[in-house]
C-alpha cells in the first residue's frame, strides 16, 4: 500500500465516523433541544403590545437557534423590566449584565441561561419608544 492510499483511507474513515456521530449521537440531542426550546418559547408571556414581525428556526445536528423579532411601542426600560421578571418566573437565570452594542452603543442585550440552553433579549435602538426587539433561544453542542 502506498502512502496516498493510506491517507485516503484515513480520511474516509474519519468522514464516516463524523457522519455517524452526527446522526446517532448529535441528532437525537438536537431534536430534543429543538422541542425543548420551542416549548420554552411558548411558555413565555410576550410583552403586551408586541407584534411578531419575523420568525426564524435553524435546526442542525450540532446547533439549534430560534429567533423571534417583535415591533412594540415601548422603551428599552419597559422591555427589559418585563422580561427580567418573565424570565425569572420561567426559571431562566440572568447573567447580571446589560450588554451594549451597535453604533454609539445604542443597542442592548440581556442574556439568560437554563441548563444547556441560552436565551437573549436584544433591542437595537433604545433611543425611541417605537422600538423593535428580539428573543433568541439557542443550544449548541
TrEMBL record:
Q: Where are the membrane-spanning stretches?
A: 6-27
Kindly state which keywords UniProt assigns to this record, in alphabetical order.
Membrane, Transmembrane, Transmembrane helix
Q: Look up the domain of life of the source.
A: Bacteria
For this entry, the protein name equals Uncharacterized protein
**Organism, scientific name:** Propionispora hippei DSM 15287
